[in-house]
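PROTEIN–LIGAND DATA SHEET

This sheet pairs a single protein chain with one bound small molecule, S-adenosylmethionine, given as SMILES. Inputs appear in the order they were entered. The predicted three-dimensional arrangement of chain and ligand is reported afterwards as a token string under its own label.
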Amino acid sequence: MHSQIPKLCSEKILAAHRRRAKTVPPETDAFRLVDGRGDELDGITIDAFAGSWLVQTRPGFPLPPFPPELGYRSVYRKLLSPEKRETPEHLAGERLTGPFLVRENGCKFWVDFQAGYSQGLFLDQRDNRSELRRRSNGRTVLNTFAYTCGFGVTAALGGALTVNLDLSRNFLDWGKRNYVANGIDPSPHDFIYGDAFDWLRRLNRRERRFDIVVLDPPTFSRDRHSHVFQLEHDYPSLIDLARGVLNRGGTLLCCANTHRLPAAHFQALLRSALPPSASLAPRRIPEDFPGSDYLKTFWAEL
Ligand SMILES: C[S@@+](CC[C@H](N)C(=O)[O-])C[C@H]1O[C@@H](n2cnc3c(N)ncnc32)[C@H](O)[C@@H]1O
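PREDICTION REPORTED AS:
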């Protein structure tokens, strides 16, 4: 009976792979291959990055075996533990020796399994990145909390002039390499190191204005004056700051990445901070996340 369990897991992974073949867009080799209970594998997610799999579980969760017949290049395990944010460990297949390129809707991104807790690309933002690209031609885009500049790259590919803001120089340098990987000269674009809250005030004082502002903050952040930002409470103050740098008729991409904030509550928070004339269009997490609803998105047109 027990020997059937690993076989069953392998079958479910293969079945999930077949389903993804129907939903993952062309020219894309970075996607969520298994999304927990959405693929009948409660407790496990697998992100596929150009054939290298990142298996994510809570500590202590028993892992199924990964026989080579599953067709991966390599398998790494990441423990989902906010206290111990460790680099993934190798489980099977090839050992990766450095960063490598993945593709999403034809756009290239550097991914690194040895760079710490995050690998360089949040796959759940794929549809928002492609929507931003679609809206970007001839626009100016401010990408706050930019991380490795995924939104900046797609906006630039869509024809925007971009400004990326992040608290990590390392991530911004990674972001520049992502621009270069796509044949974009980073020099006309900006990569600003610093606190997003401070910089939104500073850009406003300098009368800088943008057509689109991307807001995808972490759930918790502290600015350099030790003021705490907690997404569930402080989103309206972030909207106020972003509105200060938004052109008339501009667009805010508002994301909240947390289970703790239901979509209706997030929408009410946004409504409280936006003028009554603003329209709010919700967007679902991509189809390869059938077991998740943590990412909430609204495109706000002012
Ligand atoms: C959840 S990630 C953002 C993901 C990104 N929007 C994307 O789609 O790839 C959070 C990022 O916010 C940055 N960050 C956190 N607090 C910040 C702050 N106060 N000002 C600017 N960046 C901050 C972190 O360095 C990290 O890169």
